[in-house]
Amino acid sequence: MSVRNVAVNVQAALGDQYVYRLDKARALDGSAQMFLVIQALISTYGLMSLGVVGLLVYTLVMTNVQEQRREMAILRILGSQRNLLFGIVVVEVVVIGVVGVGLGILLGQVITTYGVVPLIEYLMSQEGQAITIQPAVSLAGILPAVVSAFVVLLLSALKPARDAARTKVVYAINPGVADNIQLEDLDELRERRPTLKLFVIGLGMMLVVLVAAALIFAVGFENPAALAALALVILLFLVVGVVFVFFILTRPLEKLILFVTGLVSPRLTYFAKRNVGRSSERNTLISLLVLFSGVLPSFLATFTAIGSANIETDVRLDMGAPVEIQSYSSWDGSEFAALSRLRPSFVSEEVQAIPGIENAIGLTYDYGARVSDAVEMRSGWLHLVGVTGDLNDVLYDDLMIFTGGRPAALTQILADPTAVVISQGMAEGLAVPLGGAIHVQAEGLDHTEELTVVGIAQRLPGFSEVGRIRNQALNGGTVFISLEGFARVSTSPREALPDPNDPVLDRVLATVSAGADPSAVDAALYEAFNREYDIWTRLADVQLKQARDSCVQEQALLLVLTLLSFVTAVFGVFAVIYVTIYARRREIGMM
Asked: How far apart are CA 493 and CA 6, in angstroms?
């Protein structure tokens, strides 16, 4: 914001006769938006960890309350009020939370200072960059985590504390009949009470509708923070939904597992079946604890594995050719964009003169115009792109898909200025067949060009607007035409056709010669053009290497977070089982 304000002040002082560009600020703004997405992922893991801790605390405290019913009943006989029993459980959880949160903050700072920071400095040094990071501990930084942890602990202890406060006196006299209906239960049976479960279900349905509505507004206003927050909420809904489904299936799965185990060891199953049946709620919580720790890591690991397997295809589809050169005019929507465009001679004389470059094809800027069928029954908008040569010479031919005509149509448009190649979505949206005509409202008054469709492409690498989606195609889909045809459409009939070498190009696609070193070609392109022209150069091999390195870093982060989740789950299961065994020593001794 401050950089933009400075630019606005400079523009107000110097006037509009200068071109103002904020490349670094724009890059930092894009990085900030990506950081919001990563922050949403980390926040999801944090909430998952808090959920696992909450289940762990709930299970342990509930087990303690159930196994200490007799002691609590004696306290009630001695005159203890219900709120005192409630407070005992809450205070116990608060003490545990203070100790755990304090040690967690201390351990986190130690790991950050002596582990994370040296690792970042090492990775930056490998890239030839020096950086000094000084982690700062502030109250504003740790307060949200501390408050979240204590909120989760208190929510987890709420139901066990209420159960402790409702302990019946009969547990101290005759525990065998304490679970039966007593006189103090009659009041609750006579009164109608609201069902909390139905309230939660209704609230969840409302939240789904609200998230859907918020997503529509967030996409419309392009708010990165809102999109990141909604992505976090959707991931949490996914996990909670799977958890609820599993919660219902736990008991049938237990019976199935015991049945299969009984076929192998009937005696062991006989005793285990009784024990599992008595601890149905506790076992469900333990299973939920493990599932809660594994759902999101498994989902993200699968997503990362799919992305890693498709890295090469994604890079090739994004770039379209082994080499891509783009002018900054392609991102500039002002009248100054023409100052950064390239001449067709730039492709033949300068790009192909670079050692290692074999074929090179130039593409014009996108010319927006209204398009319709021959009788103007259906209409839409297109982006007309002129080409200086045959795209078959530079595009990845194995990624091309044509539903009408063949890739040779990209060669045919060079000889006929009225021939075009359109997308499948535009062909279906306008109901125009192969060989049919489309009308384009060209530059100038009453200037309409009739163009013949010689090819219908379902997919062309490097052009994401070419596809099967009608709505996308009729709202700015890409249409290919020759450079001569582009000049006729983009020039008013009252004006002379422009010189064939006028600067109209904002993108160049090229191939690398066999045996050439991609890194050397990348360095040569950067040295030759990036300092002299307003252009950006990319090589598919270099982009592929960077994408794989980034994927390795994501996998390392995912592995660390997954290990933390699993360690928490394993420790939780160990603690619950240990407490259960300790409380049932008499029964185990009898067996």
From this structure: 43
Q: Which residues pair with 453 in a beta bridge?
A: 420
Residue 455 binned pLDDT confidence (cut-offs 50, 70, 90): very high
Residues sharing a CB contact under 8 Å with residue 228, sequence separation 6 or more, in sequence order? 36, 37, 39, 40
Indicate if the pLDDT at residue 186 is higher than 60: no
423 pLDDT higher than 90: yes
d(CA 320, CA 415): 23
The rounded percent of the chain whose pLDDT value lies above 70 is 73
pLDDT tens digits, 527-566 = 887 666 678 888 888 888 888 877 777 777 777 777 777 7
Across the range 469-484, mean pLDDT stands at: 90
Cβ partners under 8 Å of residue 450, min gap 6: 374, 418, 437, 438, 439, 440
CA dihedral (67, 73, 79, 82) positive or negative: positive
Q: Categorize the per-residue pLDDT at 277 as very low, low, confident or very high, splitting at 50, 70 and 90.
A: low
What is the predicted pLDDT for the residue at 409? 92
Distance from C-alpha of 338 to C-alpha of 362, rounded to nearest angstrom: 15
The backbone region for 135, taken as left when phi is positive above 0, alpha when psi lies in -120 to 50, beta otherwise, is beta
Q: Are the C-beta atoms of residues 479 and 418 closer than 8 Å to each other?
A: no
User: Burial, 555: exposed, middle or buried (Cβ in 10 Å; 0-12, 13-18, 19+)?
Assistant: middle
Residue 587: CA count within 13 A, CB half-sphere: 11
Q: What are phi and psi of 157, to 5 degrees?
A: -90, -5
Rg (CA), the chain: 34
Q: What's the chain's length in residues?
A: 591
**Coil, strand, or helix at residue 176?**
helix
CA distance 417 to 490: 13
Q: Is the pLDDT of residue 284 over 80?
A: no
Positive or negative torsion for Cα 275, 171, 197, 162: negative
pLDDT at 454: 94
C-beta separation of 568 from 278 below 8 A: no
Task: State the burial class of residue 253 (Cβ atoms within 10 Å of its Cβ: 0-12, 13-18, 19+).
Answer: exposed
Q: How far apart are CA 591 and CA 391, in angstroms?
A: 81
Q: Return the amino acid letter for 165.
A: A
Q: What is the pLDDT of residue 58?
A: 79
CA distance 268 to 270: 5
Inter-residue contact 364 to 488 (CB < 8 Å): no
- Comparing CA positions, the residue from 476, 473, 377, 367 lying closest to residue 426 is 473
Burial class (CB in 10 A: 0-12, 13-18, 19+), 130: exposed
Rounded CA gap, 25 and 37, in Å? 19
Identify how many contiguous H helices and E strands the chain contains and give both numbers.
Answer: 21, 11
Number of neighbours of residue 440 by Cβ within 10 angstroms? 21
DSSP string of 3-29? HHHHHHHHHHHH-TTS----HHHHHHH
189 has a pLDDT exceeding 60 = no
Q: Which of 355, 354, 326 shows the shortest CA–CA distance to 342?
A: 326
| SS3 label, residue 496 | coil
pLDDT band at 305; cut points 50, 70, 90: confident
